[in-house]
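Team,

Forwarding the record for the chain on the shared tracking sheet. I've put the sequence and predicted structure together so nobody has to dig through attachments.
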Amino acid sequence: MNSRERVLAAFHRKGFDRIPVKHEGTPEVNKMMMDHFGLSNIEQLLLLVGDDFRYIEPIYIGPELQQFPDGSMQGYWGEHYKYVEFEGGKYLESCYLPFAGINTLDELDTSHFPTAEWFDYSTVKQQCEKISNQGFAVCYGTAGDMDFINSIARARGTEQVLIDLITDDPVYLEIMEARFQFYYNMHECVLKAAEGLIDFTHIGEDLGTQNSQVIDFDIFDKHFAPKFKKYFEMVHSYGAKTMMHMCGCVRAFLPRLINLGLDVYDVVQPTTPEMDIAVLQNDFGKNIVFCGSICVQSTLAFGSVNDVVNEVERRKHLFKKGGLFLGPSHAIQVGTPLENIINMYKTAGSLAEVDEKILAIETQKNSDEVNMSRLF
């Protein structure tokens, strides 16, 4: 089987030669792995770990996103981001919130909101054909697409966004609607241009905390469900499948999301007993495919090699015919033992030998630094 055949067989629970794999690591973790194996770019690493998915990207042609003297960078919605360093790595954090303190629609400047016309889709089909010819499953989108709570909070403030959802604040609802239209239109433009060659689209919404849900069902049903339903139906009309990134304990929302049309739940974070992968499979496995589930907060970061091996073997046993794309429960974090990461992929059966074919692969970008034009 090639990667696409393997992924689709697992999606339809028809069996496979090995469990499909989807890798995600921070830039620091990916560099650690590349240095260990003598690799020079991210594509070589994806080949080495056996990642079965590849992503296409339209070309950004919109207004120049400014970089400022303090090192911060502008996002689509006028917010600014700056790297915050910690021991061993760095993360982008919002440092200027343009919608903070905006209390009326008259105060809200919508003139610079992004549109789908900020992108050139002329190379989309060619990118899809290349990935398909290489034998990979073709994906489009990111965990930051849609993302009405987390990403709007980066431009308005987390506390304010949660208050907005309770009070039906018109400023927030205007931003939410604009964000939905932007990503809905952009994804449809990509799907049209791809002419049926995209297998999965990817969006995100952080609906869970470590042990519970972020919002109640009334808020979800009023503000989120109609948008997700419309989006899922649009994606299905082009023959693609829907994937949604959700951090935390989101079990309570799965029945609703399944009914709305979600196909793949990415990335299962097993932080509570009810989020255990075996429990989720028993309760929802006939109706949704899972992605991720090897915990970056416990097993991968602090477990032994045997712990990692046992968790992977457990999933191979549970999902013999499919229903899971194996991988970490989020980006693998700085400080995670290299041997744990290697043994996750080795036990999955996806880790390749470093050979001349892999080392010969070249990409335009030799790192996976954050692409500002597509995260926000």
